[in-house]
């Protein structure tokens, strides 16, 4: 285990945390919307109405794999719907700006939509059925641990642009956008999910109503994309969650990875990775939820 992973583990255990990241701005059609600022809004009396969902999280914490069947995985810790919605035409783009991210928090970037069947401001999150609209994982495996969707996000000034499928029926949707950090994912309960939700009002003349599933059914702690050692010369990476909705959406952002010549045996006996220069900032999970 590298120093950085030890640091992450220890800091997480004693409960200190340095901010990781959250969506602090959403840009749609030349209009900017504020995100839910976890470092500012919790406990404040006059939090502005937002298209972003609020959370009880104040630490940019993650949802641990053991809670992937609990409601915090839906839209983060004790999330509540935003009062507003950002208007976007089907086929349009939504650009999400993360406050910050860490290079060593490598992993996939995944986006889902769920119809609210009415207003999203009062929706019951446990009833939301999400379909996956975009996914990107390991983009290049040449040099372990590889180039990841999270690297692409950071290279784009901590932004990710989601293409809204052009064929979906107009209406209100929750966009669930997520980074899953895999730097500790080689051990049980090590993958870190950072889900974020915003309300969208999709306009246009589409008719598709893709079938979705509850977010609590997306992932299992032992999925190959969740329990995975990204430092072990990964040749391919299986992005977790349900199948991608392949309606008339914009071009996928994920890139197929061409396997390198490394044999599985060589891969498992050689660790060709470097310890990151700086230890990652403290990783902290949101409080455990009791099963229900
Ligand atoms: Cu972390």
Automatic annotation (TrEMBL):
It is found in: Secreted. Residues 1-19 form the signal peptide. Keywords: Disulfide bond, Secreted, Signal. It holds the Pfam family AA9. Residues 250-269 are annotated as: Disordered. One of its GO terms (cellular component) is extracellular region. Its cofactor is Cu(2+). Its main location: secreted. It comes from the Eukaryota. Residues 20-234 form the Auxiliary Activity family 9 catalytic domain. InterPro entries: AA9, AA9_LPMO. PANTHER family: ENDO-BETA-1,4-GLUCANASE D (PTHR33353:SF34), PUTATIVE (AFU_ORTHOLOGUE AFUA_1G12560)-RELATED (PTHR33353). This is Auxiliary Activity family 9 catalytic domain-containing protein. It comes from Penicillium daleae.
